[in-house]
Specification:
Helix content is about 40%, strand content about 25%. β6 (about 155-160) and β7 form a beta hairpin. It is of the alpha+beta class. It is elongated, with a radius of gyration of 31 Å. Strands 4, 5, 6, 7, 8, 9, 10, 11, 12 and 13 form a ten-stranded mixed beta sheet that branches. The chain has a nine-stranded mixed beta sheet with strand order 16-15-17-18-14-19-20-21-22, with helices on both faces. The chain has a three-stranded antiparallel beta sheet with strand order 1-2-3.
């Protein structure tokens, strides 16, 4: 499978560049390097056959005893990629009866055989060509079976199944510029290099809007039509102060993460997709650009990211998407993860269709939240902890919510639009505990929030001092608040052991959380998928802490604990005993009836959008 490379678009070939490319390729020690920059285009040596052709040309320079009549034409033809004609000369030398030719053939047989083994034509696809203003190298020769075609933003994206796994093949509009548009974009991009004041803005949105307006004006002065200037302006801005064609992938709401990992002089782009699992792409980011982009993010966030502070964690609001950026750099290693943050919460249907959980499991969590249980969502990175927590907020009748985060992920603005009274407290990140900061002290925030009167307290991710302060606060200052938090871990017991080792959390502390929601990854159809491991109720008897699997994934099916259907068994679970005391219900049959009603309300409203789901769910509960 190859991207469309018609001669009317950017991927045309400059005939005069062929000999130059071959000459440069003779000097290169490895594939993948730029062999020529010419007229706004970068030519990459990515073809084994072309590399072999260049080596043959180089070897011809070292031949001794060959006559000018044969060797000079051979060198010229190969330099211009005319392998078919060059191979004719090689056959004539081998078949010649002249003594001089026979001697030459014997002495240089291995070289002649190498030339004869070349393909008769070095095709256009043998060279990767991208505009010089792009910060990415775009591989166009990856092969695979096409599973899906879609349009995302300014790019065509093909999903390929290959021997390497799933590949998202990005064919950006940057590769389809005509000569006139390429010259215009290159000229404006060169002028931007002189702009240092681009770092003097307060937000990514403000910066990009200002640059876009100035770019449109410059293109208009160059005689570019208004409609075309708008499209070219977007290309220029996203490649200069953005992520280039990579931004289009973030428009897919099923995309979870993008990973940039160092490989030579480039960062390979891969990621995780909720329906495709792990994937690779055909994009390689130039290392030097990641450093420039890092400077821009540092200036916008006032966060250090250098050799003394090699860790970085922040949320950046791009015009069309939000992303949490976590990165490391030298002396550790240059690696960056982008978490795609939805502007709206998911609905139960999203989780059910992905196979993470079923309707009953979501209904059970909604039932627990409505009864002011404290819920801890645990799982590995990207397993859906924060997404599931955010969706749970849509089911809570209490509209007063306090969100505590060091890196904003929960869609607070959207929840406010939905009518929730949401306050966000920004606390200092544990990555910068030694820095002076305007952000609030963790302990002060947790205790103040629990005393301030909100009915729902949400902590986006437990890290550093947040861990011990949350458990201490839940035990002594919780009152009637609903508590929710996320933490990196796996099953309840392993999470407890991890928190005990890293933050000194004891079994007594951990028992303050009523429900542990465990998420993890499973292999399904040869791909890694997210799934609910189980929903566990904490049960403390004396010094012993155990976990009751209310719902557990077993052999691909969700098993329900007997206490959720049998009133006698329900009365033996401490959590349900406390619920009976605070709910006003007379017996466990009433709790089971209310659970059934909650599950039914989830089922009837699960197909709606977030706002409609919340309203329909509440109506179902009141019915």
């Amino acid at each position: 499978m190859k991207a469309d490379q018609s001669s009317s678009g950017l991927i045309f070939f400059d005939p005069a560049a062929r000999a130059r490319i071959t000459t440069e390729a003779m000097r290169k020690g490895e594939l993948g390097e730029i062999v020529l920059s010419r007229n706004g285009l970068d030519y990459y040596l990515d073809s084994g056959p072309l590399y072999e052709l260049a080596q043959c040309v180089s070897s011809l320079d070292q031949v001794h005893g060959g006559c000018e009549k044969c060797w000079k034409p051979l060198q010229t033809l190969l330099s211009e990629w005319e392998a078919k004609e060059a191979k004719k000369i090689c056959r004539e030398i081998l078949l010649s009866s002249e003594a001089e030719c026979a001697l030459c053939a014997r002495e240089n047989r291995s070289l002649l055989d190498r030339i004869l083994a070349l393909p008769e034509e070095v095709r256009l696809e043998s060279i990767e060509v991208v505009p010089s203003f792009m910060k990415f190298k775009v591989l166009t020769s990856l092969k695979g079976t096409i599973l899906r075609r879609e349009r995302l933003g300014e790019s065509r994206v093909l999903t390929l199944e290959s021997e390497m796994g799933v590949i998202l093949f990005v064919d950006p509009s940057e590769l389809h510029l005509n000569r006139q548009d390429l010259d215009a974009v290159t000229d404006v991009s060169e002028k931007l290099k002189e702009r240092r004041e681009i770092y003097e803005f307060n937000s990514m949105r403000e910066l990009r809007q200002r640059l876009y307006e100035e770019t449109i004006q410059q293109l208009g002065e160059m005689g570019v039509r208004a409609d075309r200037a708008s499209s070219l302006g977007k290309i220029i801005v996203r490649n200069w102060v953005g992520l280039g064609p990579l931004e289009d992938l973030f428009l897919d709401q099923r995309l979870n993460d993008i990973y940039l990992n160092m490989h030579g002089d480039y960062l390979e782009v891969s990621g995780f997709h909720s329906s495709l699992g792990d994937f690779r792409t055909n994009l390689l980011l130039k290392k030097e650009y990641m450093n420039i982009f890092g400077e821009l993010i540092v200036s916008l966030t006032n966060r250090p990211w250098d050799a003394l502070h090699p860790l970085f964690d922040w949320m950046v609001d791009f015009p069309d998407f939000r992303a949490r950026i976590f990165g490391t750099k030298e002396p550790i290693s240059l690696n960056v993860t982008f978490r795609n943050l939805r502007r709206e919460p998911f609905t139960p249907r999203d989780f059910i269709e992905e196979g993470i959980l079923d309707t009953f499991s979501f209904g059970l969590l909604a039932f627990m939240a409505r009864h002011r249980a404290s819920l801890l969502f645990t799982g590995p990175k990207g397993s859906g902890k924060t997404s599931l927590l955010s969706t749970m907020l849509l089911t809570i009748p209490d509209r007063s919510i306090l969100v505590i985060e060091d890196t904003p992920e929960i869609p607070v603005d959207t929840l406010r639009d939905f009518g929730f009274d949401v306050t966000r407290y920004k606390v200092a990140s544990p990555l910068f505990v030694e820095e002076e900061t305007y952000e609030r002290n963790v302990r002060e925030v947790v205790y103040a929030s629990l005393r301030a009167g909100p009915r729902v307290v949400v902590i986006g991710e437990l890290r550093g001092a947040l861990i011990s302060n949350l458990f201490e606060g839940v035990r002594y200052e919780r009152g009637g608040n609903t508590m929710m938090a996320t933490v990196h871990g796996s099953d309840p017991q392993t999470t407890l052991e991890l928190l005990n080792k890293t933050a000194g959390i004891t079994a007594e502390d951990f028992s303050a959380m009523d429900i542990i929601v465990s998420l993890y990854y499973v292999e399904k159809g040869g791909r890694r998928r997210r799934a609910l491991n189980g929903i566990y109720a904490t049960e403390r008897k004396g010094e012993k802490l155990s976990f009751i699997p209310l719902v557990r994934l077993s052999s691909g099916r969700f098993e329900v604990h007997g206490s959720l259907t049998d009133p006698k068994k329900m009365r033996k679970v401490s959590l349900f005993k406390r619920m009976l005391q605070t709910s006003g219900l007379k017996d466990s049959e009433g709790l089971i009836s209310e659970l059934t009603k909650t599950v039914k309300a989830v089922s009837s409203a699960s197909a709606a959008k977030p706002l409609e789901f919340s309203a329909e769910f509440m109506r179902g509960i009141r019915a």
